[in-house]
Specification:
The protein is α/β, with parallel strands linked by helices. The strands form eleven sheets. The chain has a four-stranded antiparallel β-sheet with strand order 6-5-14-16. The chain has a four-stranded mixed β-sheet with strand order 10-11-9-12, with helices on one face. A four-stranded mixed β-sheet has the order 28-27-30-29, with helices on both faces. The longest helix has 28 residues. It is elongated and about 120 Å long. It starts with a helix and ends with a helix. It binds one RNA strand through strand 8, strand 12, helix 8, helix 11 and strand 26.
RNA sequence: GGGCGGUUAGCUCAGUUGGCUAGAGCGCUGCGUUGACAUCGCAGAGGUCACUGGUUCAAGUCCAGUAUCGCCCACCA
């Protein structure tokens, strides 16, 4: 049967599935069932006043494929969304796609390169068409992959960052910031990627430690006639190739070594240069480093640029856009910057200016995208003055208007915001949002530098025209020969508008009014600065309020060895491959329970297997329940009518878990919540209640059926946000047996269990615990003495007064679960066999198992002595605590009473154990 | 140079207002084909909670410091 055939939503095939759970047989059908049912749309009928729960999905790259980062985001967001949908909140999860400027362009350029072409061979328009073509072909992949994950987002609202509305949003934001004088064009030192041939922002530069060299170079003083003297200033540099761009030597103003020489000049010690540069004083120089003298190269260093500005020194550019040396580099012109470094160093050495060379490990900036070493260059670019934007973005976090989970990330965020620098937003790319600025060929003729292929760059002194409508006339001269700025905007500029451009802004749409700000922004901590920070700044700026209430940052998924996944290590795990192997629910469960917020996790097959096994356990446990209720043909009584101890116990446990899960989810502790649900279903429902229920069911007592149905129903509801496919598949089978058919057509829309339904019964919990202890103890004794599993044992149980009733009432249960028949529940004074018996002393009872010849007196003595030691140790601890005068005086009464009761109980056990040991002779 | 995180069973990790014997999964040992499940069941072994000091009646949990691993930020050439 194919997916399309199942779209009629005949889910009857589910009942034919047997044995081991196989997610691939149900996942597609379940997704189609939900989507066709319209479950992913926010329900329009609900109370318009109700506060909606909104998540705007981080848009994956249109040309990308689903990786584990997406998988984590989708898992967490889907769980949150499904939970809120089941709470009955109006729920919107809005998906989208990002054009990913540099990333996408570089992929297409790589394709062109394989065809022996560059984008310049195609020209701007044809290149853009080519990218659109590629985007059109790859776009469906990522969305279909998100569907496979089970993402219950509203696909009808999908937004692409290059759609008309986001374009308008970009335009409006740019114009507003420009008019506010928060966007400007100017020559500044920027990070240049010589491979991608574009400017980068500071955050797009990754600093890595490289092994380099530190060249100590002497810049000679000259006499009045310009003749070199023997002494000079020795500086240390890692970049001798930039010596031709040196404009000064700087020392610290209070450094007495250099004070006598301030104002003197030194000569560039390089072949073909006779330039003299001054010795200046600047506080930015570190006296401790090297000789305390620093060569100043404002054209190729951020710090030097700032020092140069303070001293009125003009930058010189010796490294060109492509990384080769410019004509300013004299005889080194044309060499690659790396070659020039080697050559310059050789010449310095030959000419006697190289004092020494040492190995030096230092941080070198690499382009995040291309990986090449970034070249700091002075260039005319567009910038956002972020000071005021960042101040507001920091304030809303400081004032608690936005909460960051985990909380410690708050300080990272604030630290960054408080030290922000202007944001370079122009990129020399052809793919993305074009900068909405125009120039007049008449007014700006001096600033527009045209190249042969019709492209041009904009130099200083231009007069950009920035308006909401494309201008046709120059406001200065009335000229009509206008050209648009050639550059594109940083992708993160449009991504920064994502929180409101997806909802229709700049139009005042209903969606915008209803869903802004969103409830949770969930993403990896690695894009806190790239994305979250920008959304905060631009959201506050455009909307006047923070764009979301909570930022939830998840950690990175690492491989089994804890390494970051990378193509070069060849350790990349494909989430879909793992889903094929273990089932999508298992993958989701593993990712959700793998770590706590903000912490990295390791993904291993062992953990995936564990989750798969859980899915299988659930499937088979449910098959048992379904089989029993089907057999009863509707003779299911209400769960509240079942009043046996185990009935009350499991329902109380359900209430307890429900309460805990609710609390955890409200604190964004998704992983812990899922773990507790798993624990409840496996270790309590399936291991104990189901086994207990069989005892009565086999006797024809159908009372447990109502409880099984109710608890399974609630368990499926609780688990659904994490394991949507299997829970829905089972629930569809269970639904006909539920009162009122469960109140809904599908689990995805059913009500989430809520705390406080009155079924909590702590007495039942402790009573059943006593029964469990008896069962476990008998099993333990039997195992210790190697009683054959199939053989029944006669057992005497002598309960404590307070547990007599529950244990007596549960004899049939204990018999079956512990293979104990006949089972004698005897009173405190009643005689029990004392010869050839194995015994155990429990808080709730004593267990006596006559085992005939199996019992070894020495073994029994050893066992009981070990127990006695344990009890004695604990008793000493309890007594020490109680004899501490401060404890009784200061600890809460309840804690003191508890300790007293424990001490009394341990004393009783000790006495009993001593008697047992004595009776062994 | 700053900031943050990890250090808990052989392995991977939970443990969020300090309070009974610190938990789970995997792995390990023994037993087991009882009609939901061997992707399972039952029982068991296994931990000085990195270290030192402090606060407290009470510390894995709070404070200070140390060690070690890792991450982020920063203009030491």
């Amino acid at each position: 049967m194919t997916t399309t055939e199942r779209r009629a939503h005949d889910l009857s095939f589910l009942s034919s599935l047997i044995g081991a759970y196989d997610g691939s047989q149900v996942e597609d059908a379940m997704y189609a069932f939900w989507e066709d049912g319209g479950w992913f749309r926010p329900s329009e009928a609900v109370d318009e006043e109700a506060k909606p729960f909104t998540v705007i999905m981080p848009p994956p790259n249109v040309t990308g494929a689903l990786h584990l980062g997406h998988a984590v985001t989708l898992t967490i967001e889907d769980a949150l969304i499904r939970w809120h949908r089941m709470l009955g909140d109006p729920t919107l999860w809005l998906p989208g796609l990002d054009h990913a400027g540099i990333a996408t362009q570089s992929v297409v350029e790589a394709q062109l390169a394989r065809e022996g072409m560059s984008r310049h061979d195609l020209g701007r328009e044809a290149f853009e068409e080519r990218v659109w073509d590629w985007v059109g072909r790859t776009r469906p992949r990522i969305t279909s992959q998100a569907r496979r994950m089970g993402a219950s987002c509203d696909w009808e609202r999908t937004v692409f960052t290059l759609d008309e509305t986001p374009r308008q949003a970009v335009r409006k934001t740019f114009v507003a910031l420009f008019n506010d004088e928060r966007i400007y064009r100017g020559a500044r030192i920027i990070n240049w990627d010589p491979q991608m041939l574009t400017a980068l922002s500071d955050v797009e530069v990754e600093y890595r430690e490289d092994e380099g060299k530190l060249w100590h170079v002497r810049y000679p003083f000259v006499d009045a006639r310009g003749n070199e003297l023997d002494d000079g200033v020795v500086i240390a540099t890692t970049r001798p190739e930039t010596i031709p761009a040196d404009v000064a030597i700087a020392v610290h103003p209070e450094d007495e070594r250099w004070q006598p020489h301030l104002g003197r000049e030194v000569r560039l010690p390089l072949r073909g240069f006779s330039r003299l540069i001054p010795l200046v004083a600047d506080e930015a120089v570190d006296r401790e480093f090297g000789t305390g003298a620093l060569k100043i190269t404002p054209g190729h260093d951020q710090l030097d640029f700032e020092i140069g500005e303070r001293h009125g020194l003009e930058p010189i550019r010796v490294v060109d856009w492509d990384g080769a040396m410019t004509s300013e580099a004299g005889l080194y012109a044309g060499l690659d910057r790396d070659e020039a470094r080697v050559t310059v160093a050789e010449h310095l050495e030959e000419d006697g200016y190289l004092v020494r060379t040492e190995a030096h490990i230092h941080n070198v900036g690499h382009s995040q995208r291309s990986g090449v070493v970034v070249e700091p260059l002075v260039s005319n670019q567009w910038f956002v003055d972020t000071d005021a934007l960042a101040a507001e973005a920091a304030r809303v976090v400081r004032d608690g208007e936005v909460r960051i989970v985990p909380e410690r990330s708050t300080s990272v965020y604030l630290q960054w915001m408080d030290n922000i620098r202007p944001w370079c937003i122009s990129r020399q790319l052809w793919w993305g949002h074009r900068i909405p600025a125009w120039y007049c060929r008449d007014c700006d003729s001096g600033a527009l530098i045209e190249s042969e292929d019709g492209e041009f760059t904009v130099d200083e002194g231009s007069h950009p025209i920035v308006e909401m409508q494309d201008p046709t006339v120059c406001p200065r001269c009335g000229g009509r020969d206008l050209v648009q700025d050639p550059d594109m905007l940083d992708t993160w500029f449009s991504s920064g508008l994502w929180t409101h451009s997806t909802l229709g802004w700049p139009d005042e749409t209903d969606d915008l009014k209803r869903f802004y700000p969103s409830s949770v922004m969930e993403t990896g901590y690695d894009i806190l600065f790239f994305w979250v920070a920008r959304m905060m700044m631009l959201g506050c700026y455009n909307m006047g309020s923070a764009p979301f209430e909570t930022v939830y940052l998840h950690g990175l998924v690492r491989d089994a060895l804890g390494r970051k996944m990378s193509k070069s290590l060849d350790n990349v795990i494909d989430p879909l491959e793992k889903a094929d192997q273990f089932g999508m629910d298992a993958l989701r469960f593993t990712l959700a329970t793998g770590s706590t917020p903000g912490h990295d996790m390791r993904l291993t097959d062992e953990r995936l297997e564990g989750s798969r096994n859980f899915a299988n356990k659930l499937w088979n446990g449910a098959r048992f329940v379904l089989g029993e209720v089907a057999q009863a043909e509707g003779a299911i009584t209400d769960a509240s009518a079942a009043t046996a101890l185990e009935d009350r116990w499991i329902q109380s446990r359900l209430a307890a878990v429900t309460e805990s899960v609710d609390e955890l989810l409200r604190q964004f502790q998704l992983g812990e919540a899922a773990r507790q649900i798993q624990d409840f279903l496996w270790n309590e429902l399936f291991d104990w209640y189901v086994e207990a229920s069989k005892v009565r069911l086999r006797q024809g007592d159908l009372a447990p059926l109502g409880v099984l149905a109710r608890v399974l129903d609630a368990g499926l509801r609780l688990l659904h946000p994490w394991m949507p496919f299997i829970t829905e598949a089972i629930w569809q089978q269970l639904k006909p047996y539920l009162p009122d058919e469960g109140g809904c057509a599908a689990l995805i829309g059913a009500r989430y269990p809520q705390p406080g339904d009155g079924t909590r019964d702590t007495a039942a919990e402790s009573d059943f615990q006593a029964v469990r202890d008896v069962v476990t103890s008998i099993r333990q004794l039997r195992a210790d003495y190697r009683v054959q599993a199939g053989q029944w044992s006669e057992v005497y149980v002598q309960p404590q007064p307070e547990t007599t009733q529950p244990i007596s009432a549960s004899t049939a249960l204990i018999e079956v679960l512990a293979r104990s028949r006949p089972l004698h529940v005897i009173g405190a004074g009643d005689a029990a066999p004392s010869d050839q018996v194995a015994t155990a002393v429990l808080p709730s009872a004593e267990i006596i198992v006559p085992l005939g010849g199996l019992v070894d007196v020495e073994q029994e003595r050893g066992r009981l002595t070990k127990d006695l030691e344990q009890v004695g140790k604990r008793l000493r601890g309890a007594e020490a605590k109680l004899s501490n005068p401060g404890f009784r005086a200061k600890a809460p009464t309840a804690v003191v009473e508890q300790a007293e009761a424990l001490a009394a109980e341990l004393q009783r056990q000790r006495t009993e154990l001593e008697a047992r040991i004595a009776s062994l002779g």
